[in-house]
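Second attempt. The first submission of DUF323 domain-containing protein had a stray character pasted in from the spreadsheet, which I only caught after the job came back as garbage. Lesson logged: always re-copy from the clean sequence file. Corrected sequence (592 aa) follows.
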Amino acid sequence: MRADFLQAVFDRHSEGGLVTLCVDEVYNERATECTGFNYVTASLGVASATWRHEKLENTTYYAASGEGNIVASELEFSTPTSSIQASHLRAFSLASLRSIISMTSRCHQFRIYVLERPVVVFPPLSGTASYSPSSKNSACGNIPTVKEWNNLWRAWDLVTIQMIPQEMLLQKPIDLRHKCLFYIGHIPTFLDMLLSKAIGGSATEPSYFWKIFERGIDPHVDDPDHCHNHSDVPECDEDWPTLDTIISFRNGVRARLLQLYDDIDGGKRALTRNIARTLVMTLEHEGFHVEVRSNTLTLSRKVLRSYDQTLLYMLIQRAGSGTLSPSGFTAPPWHLLKQQWDATPPPSTEYVTLGPATVILGHDDSEGDDFLPDKEMRAEGREYGWDNESPTRQVQVGKFRAAWRPVTNQEFFAFYTVGSAELPKSWVEEDGEIKVRTIYGPVAMDIAAGWPVLTTYEDLMAYAKSKGGRLPTEPELRLFLDTYDVGYEGGGNTGFRNWHPVPATAGMESEGGRGTNGGIWEWTTTLFDTHDGLVPTNLFTGYSTDFFDTKHQTVLGASYATIPRLGRRTLRNFWQRGYGYAWVGARVVWDI
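This time the job returned cleanly.
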């Protein structure tokens, strides 16, 4: 399925912003006459006689219009990360389309998708170019293009401007973080300060934003009075700048960034490694803020700390009672999705045995090389990362067993009900019923039963011990993910394919064990600390080293709101063990 063809079909046939697409897995030129097609017409409530043979760009297909409704009893729900469906999801994302739900005809010949065109869709990395002033398009490297910036800005503006109501801007959904308005100002301030460091120039006006939006807060969970240095933000609501003033500042900073691209394209400025790294880091910083990250950055002699919580982590705490649902995305059809999730087959075996093995961690990307005479101007065709990703190193992993899938809400609920853990921050009690938080408001436990549970390191370690196991080390989890996780390219639940977790699918023999973890980060027992060969960044001083405090654990994976480029295998995230708001779960492993 070509992206341009899918876009044209959607433009021609979408009704109410939706198109139901039936994909014939066994090509039949006279599809409407095959027995299997009867299942499709019955399941969609469309009369066979209404199907029309149409042609578009030398491609023939069948189309029907009407008031049909999906009849779930006529369909079978299939695993969304099968290799066939993964190829379809890649095609949809390249066409800027999103699958709301997918099903299979009972004859297994047709796959049925309900598609929409939301305000933002992230293409697979295989379809994402790296910026190159010489060719405008490069398959190698990860320097963001203007197109990638514009796509991320659509996501950021959706989360900030459209999902936070006016009355919530000066509220603090999480006590350990700033008010919502701070983060709307912090992102352009961060970009403005790093641009000045990379290419010179003064602050975008109003320049005093550098003082109030420079640093976020990250107090210790077990001692909230202990907090790193941070910006002096206004104490009174009336002293904060207005949203309109911040948006004007944001627009000015974005224009400054686009001018940099124009200057490089026009030959007025060379693309150096330092500038390329600045572009990568500032885009990824914004991507982390859309979802999850505490960053530590330095500008000149001042530490630019962004110890803040993702906005979505904050907004989900008020979902259903303040936060607005994402505009341009169809609300989940929970009753149909539950049937799909309930039909997800369990793993073929309880666990998988891995190791002994040699695991390669990291990549070679030393910022210290950026100004070497023979490398400074060789900016293209390489992958940039954060300082803790480098250098490449080998680690020996012994033999162990690992659960195919992370601990689920249902499994942890049984652990919770016997008094073994506190209520996770991802759950909420309403009218005596435990529900699971989503950006659309809390949902019943039976709907989210198969999702991975999101809770603290301590609680999941206690759960693992109750099962006679433990949590994995970073190399052990890296080995499992390298072997069995399909990622965004393979249909995984990241990059806003959904605005919530889904049941994990790894462990099925039909797919060689490969599948998704449901769209979460995963805890490891590895402390976030230095390693041999790590050279702390000078561009963002303290980014990693400020968190070598024995309180942060390394986490791997990617959540449903992680942009695809942050799902690269070398990336390492980190969270305080007792912090319960992050979208982090875990799987149990056992020693052999």
